[in-house]
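G., before I forget:
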Amino acid sequence: MAHCDCFSEHFSKRHFLSSIDARVKLLIALALLLMVLTYKGTMFPLIIAAVSIMLCLKMRIPLKVLAFRLAQPLLLALVVLLLKFFFSGNDTMFIISFPSSNFSLFTLTGHRDGLTEGLLITARILGGVSLLAAVGFATPFIEFMAALSWLKVPKPFIEIMMFTYRYLFVFLEDATTIYSAQKNRLGYTGIKKGLNSFGVLTGSLVLRGLEQSQKTADAMSQRGYTGDMPLLKGKPLRAIELAAASLIVAFGGAVWMI
Amino acid sequence: MRVKRAALFFLLFTVHYSLFTDVAYAMHISEGILPLNWAALWFAVAVPFLWFGMRRLRELSKIDLSYKPLVGLMAAIVFVISLMPIPVPTAGTCSHPGGTAIPAILLGPSITVLITGVSLLIQALFFAHGGLSTWGADVVSMGIMGAFAGVGIFKLMRKFNAGLAVSAFLAGMISDWAIYFTTSVELASGIRGDEPFGPLFIKILIAFVPTQLPLGIVEGAMTAGMVKLLFKRRSDLLVKFGVIKAGEAI
């Protein structure tokens, strides 16, 4: 349950990307993501992946954390690649018969066009996920919220995100404590017992959430909360940052068009 | 035909057992899997539901100041639940529940779409579960389909006088399977290329059966456990959210 080392706040806060405006980082990421998704080959997404991973390492993100972040999408990518390779396409690359070609119980057919399509999707996944990882590690959550607000994401949505972020760690800790207590008392020794314990754990969390929400609202209204939460107001964008962003996007666009 | 089927079976099981021996997550579609046109289409489907959820949130938070914190905290709980590892005995792996049925039963489906949207955006940005381009597709499968299927079954079962725990169990289970079904549709339509949709959809559906079928049952048990505990300890809250009437037995 301990996958909470995912926010930039948990890692080095002073790196070369920390001083750049979150709005600029988000705009660059969205533009590059659009290019990754619309590129017809593998080169551009792979370049984006390589640059993004290098940026993460330069920000001193531990390799283990980075590998963990990329593991799940890459496993999915591998499944898609295998599905496309073996079950999609017309251009046969090879046929493997089991146990032999004379007496085959089952055969596997690899397709060249399926492999090409699979690799294309895999590259897109790698490019997209690495790019988002780099932006996620480079930007504190609160700045991200301000950038989303600037991009006209509706305020109630951002407010809910802020409440969620605030209580995420509280509930993670609660869940871990309850889970450990249940485990120590053999709460997960059988399927039936495990399901029961899991139901109790979930119910306890929901109960705490319901009770806490009332306390939070009371505490907030004592401090002047009237139903709207203030968000960070962005300073005007700096010309040099905008120029650098335009250059990066233009360079990406040039590579995309090659 | 039989040979092809056997090959498919062998490959899918090999892939499944070799890849998912550690952890498999609830069914998020990763960044980059869907081409732009499909990503845009699912986004367009998700937006009206999110808009409706936000309108409902505004209305309810005008009446009750604690409603926004409540929705935010529920989103945090859904987030935490979706990170919990559940052993799936048939697949020999751990998996993670969606957790959509719980807020859907308590707060209603439109607010649940919003909760799911928030959770999915944080997960996409900071956990690489799902993605920005696939956010719409994930909201459609987990938020819209998961919530509406869960609430629909729950209300239907209650209409037929089924017990609270049984109704919650079925709501959790069907909600999970609805997510799994919709994700398979989205994946098959997004990655099929020039292939026909049907066969690829079946292959994807089969690929996730060993994890998702038992996970649905686990999710059902978890939802039933949650409702039972709430009934035992704070039945007034279930009355407040309109899940049961005052004085009703489980």
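Chain B touches chain A through 89 residues (CB under 8 Å). Helices of chain B lie at 2-19, 36-63, 67-81, 101-107, 109-126, 135-159, 164-191, 197-240.

More on Monday.
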